[in-house]
């Protein structure tokens, strides 16, 4: 699913109007009837409704919703804010329709002073002040109105977006001047800012309503942001040739673990095997020998000369992929061979966890990373690598600039894991759950992506399939076990089911 910017939403709007064709006022009516139907399915007509409408098309939607609910027997009070004496054409038409509607008993057009209505518990506020046309943070009277609504005990339904929230960049926004909705009914597709954790407090429960904007227009507009869906992943999966032998299924090298962190190596290796690699070799410190042999008998061990840390860079000629970093620590004796290893590797690489921390403390090394490398930081690791960010948008921007600079892939892990491609595209994962916020979950992802690379997936496909499978395995595990008790090992155990589901 594509995520459009506000400029692209306007473009799509115009495309739909021109090519369907449909009058813009009728498109607004279509959106409003879907909104009103959704509201009526959740709240019956005993609820008192207060509608706050702004001067643009978001306000137009809200006025149309007010009329439609009024016609269905809801008691609706409407406040239209027309401070500048200028309404969008469709907002103006809907203002007249509300004024002519005998079911609306209270309609107030606010041009100067505003005497706010009492908002009580059990009332429903419909927020149609601003949507995707907001061009700067709210201030003055609108900011006071937002604070008034937020302080009230009434439930708030936001139309398209919580008013005050920007579709993309909220870095310089003022959070107290943004509506905190209990439900957001967004039109056609979620906005970029909805994917960020710090904005969940404004959005509440999100529902995306299909208002049938032109499918042709949607496919023509090139979106920088997309959300990965199952239908995107299925066609990418490789078949296993019935005549295959293990030598053709990819030989992966995992460089992981230090003494006390053997678990990271075990998880990455197991995940790599479960994600379909034909053979997996693990390079790990000597002291991990026994535990690795017992925990993952399928893997081949390549022991470092050192007892407790990794101190060698090795030949990768016989491997089709290298996964490096989980649990390796940040000892300087590991860091030096680590960068040598990256330079020396002849196969695709996934670098995770301590690999990223080492890069963060050796800034100059970032320039030496091989093209096509896949880095998988979580938010904190990315902050260490690229400097702290004030919010998720800024962090995403840094990640995407890093991917462009490296000609590589930066996977920022989180609720909607973002894969930043070297060409500037960003793909968000839709699978996964809060249960996966648990130690070792990242090591599992490293193992999965390494396996896919070894199997011969293109790096961008390995990233997409990898994050999707990882999240899906977590979701299937959580369905059976619940989120609270989920462990990284459970994600590995459910990988077979995730594959099966995608191959069905
Ligand atoms: N393609 C779609 O998805 C459709 C969108 N529609 C609605 O149209 C909305 C977008 O409408 P508009 O583009 O008219 O934009 P908005 O209604 O979000 O706001 C635009 C108005 O707000 C003013 N404004 C912007 N920032 C302000 C600020 N900080 N303080 C005070 N005033 C400010 C602008 O000058 C303009 O008058 C969507 O959010 C949605 O609700 C629907 O009508 C149907 C189709
Ligand atoms: K709104």
TrEMBL record:
AMP binds at residues 413-417, 442. K(+) binds at residues 58, 127, 163. The keyword Aminoacyl-tRNA synthetase does not apply. Residues 9-219 form the YjeF N-terminal domain. Residues 229-502 form the YjeF C-terminal domain. Keywords: ATP-binding, Isomerase, Lyase, Metal-binding, Multifunctional enzyme, NAD, NADP, Nucleotide-binding, Potassium. Its EC number is 4.2.1.136, 5.1.99.6. The keyword Cytoplasm does not apply. (6S)-NADPHX binds at residues 57-61, 131-137, 160, 264, 327, 378, 443. It catalyses: (6S)-NADPHX + ADP = AMP + phosphate + NADPH + H(+); (6R)-NADHX = (6S)-NADHX; (6S)-NADHX + ADP = AMP + phosphate + NADH + H(+); (6R)-NADPHX = (6S)-NADPHX. Binds 1 potassium ion per subunit. Its cofactor is Mg(2+); K(+). Homotetramer. HAMAP family: NADHX_dehydratase, NADHX_epimerase. Bifunctional enzyme that catalyzes the epimerization of the S- and R-forms of NAD(P)HX and the dehydration of the S-form of NAD(P)HX at the expense of ADP, which is converted to AMP. This allows the repair of both epimers of NAD(P)HX, a damaged form of NAD(P)H that is a result of enzymatic or heat-dependent hydration. Catalyzes the dehydration of the S-form of NAD(P)HX at the expense of ADP, which is converted to AMP. Together with NAD(P)HX epimerase, which catalyzes the epimerization of the S- and R-forms, the enzyme allows the repair of both epimers of NAD(P)HX, a damaged form of NAD(P)H that is a result of enzymatic or heat-dependent hydration. In the N-terminal section; belongs to the NnrE/AIBP family. Belongs to the NnrE/AIBP family. This is Bifunctional NAD(P)H-hydrate repair enzyme. The lineage of its organism: Bacteria, Pseudomonadati, Bacteroidota, Bacteroidia, Bacteroidales. The gene is nnrE.
